């Protein structure tokens, strides 16, 4: 791996960092036995199959098979390169990594992602400066003052200003010798529609940098301070910025989210900033997009209770209807808080204060409860009204996959509108059968999707011999005392699976560091597939016993011999049939050799070490 942090440093960083601590910042972990488990951040699940083993400093998800060491986790979870993950951990644990200025060759090797982040960092500083010193920043400062944003809050959120004109940022970045194509990839400058050249995307706007969970600027949101449209303009999707996977303010909110176990999700930048300014520091904002499963996964790592805050019934209803299935799938405890008429979170907290806001949030209703209330409010309780209420509720009910939850909501609805449950059920069935018909016609179906979630490698999908080879690798990783026996008896030569055999060989390479075998092997491996296998097979905490292990090896060798013999006998028959004497002699002597070898191995295993 071409990389300018020496190996000893990497080991030091790995030894000092605690995988449980690092993962806990993104996943709520619960201790079970020697392991910790939680909801996997890499796939959607309701029951925890994501496992972290502090002894071996590895993680593995039994749902999606992701796994590896602390570096692999950061790379996957924060979309970092390997060097970035190493550096990020070094910073966290106060380990100084000597970083010299990059040579031009190294600069060329810098990943696209790193380049974009560097430009974003420059841009944050530039916009900040423009807000405070001339270039029209007074207008923006006056606007923010009018909106009641404190200087400390502006500082905390690094709010800035993109000046009026076409090339202020462009010239600033050009002076730093950043080539135009690289600038364009950040979305901060865009090509002219006619002719060559590029110009600033954000002009005469208050700039809100969007940070990732670690406070690294990944994108920007700009609000116009004149009548320019759109009122809000965001960075486009880039290799570092994906709006469906970004939450504004999460880096500032995560601490308070953990303390209160609650997170408020609002819609706008200024709503989020105001809540923070008034002490509701567990608030984040979606960035002009509907809530996604990724958003939920991100906040679930920091808080159990989710409260969505909406300005009005209408916005709330739309969002709630859109995300019922999302909530039912991942978090049916999520609540919806609708603010009183003509208020948004910003205006409400300014007018009423944080205590009233907290008080109101206690009354937030469940997603289905909210929808029911809204429908009743909208249609009333006349006969026609009740029919309309049931009609509005059928789609949300149908999207609940949990049958118990669904029947409870059906019961609640029937009581609310005073209609027999059976009538609601009949409506629901009618709706579902229409849906199925449509599904069949368009060829879509849930089953195909479900299948792709089932990953290979699970114990019921593999053949018996691969299963026992995997078991031996497990044993080698979890019970390194057995390694000398594996080596001495050349057990790996009986492996039929090439990948597992070479993994086994890699493990034996680190026999002298058996105490940290899993970490050493993970560090040695380059590809994700192998790392995943190692984390999966290494994470269990079976109580291995030496004699049991020896028996397992014996059995494996016996079976392999039978397999091998069968193969060999087939080949011998074929050679006889073809009158291939040379081959026949070769095969027969191989058969004899094999038999002798496994017999010797058996004897030595029985005799013990
Ligand atoms: Zn998973």
Protein architecture, described:
The radius of gyration is 31 Å and the shape is globular. It is an alpha+beta fold and 609 residues long. The chain folds into 5 domains: 7-92, DNA Primase, Chain A; 111-241, DNA primase DNAg catalytic core, N-terminal domain (Alpha-Beta Complex); 247-354, Dna Topoisomerase Vi A Subunit, Chain: A, domain 2 (3-Layer(aba) Sandwich), CATH 3.40.1360; 380-442; 462-607, DNAb Helicase, Chain A. The strands form 4 sheets. The chain has a 5-stranded antiparallel beta sheet with strand order 1-2-3-4-5, with helices on both faces. A 5-stranded mixed beta sheet has the order 13-12-14-15-16. Strands 6-9-10-11 form a 4-stranded antiparallel beta sheet. Helix content is 56%, strand content 11%. The longest helix is centred in the last third of the chain and has 32 residues, at 546-577. The model is unreliable at 439-461 (pLDDT under 50). α3 packs across α4 (82-92), α14 (313-330) runs antiparallel to α16 and α17 runs antiparallel to α18 (403-417). The chain has 27 helices and 16 strands. Bound molecules: zinc ion. Zinc ion (ZN) binds next to loops.
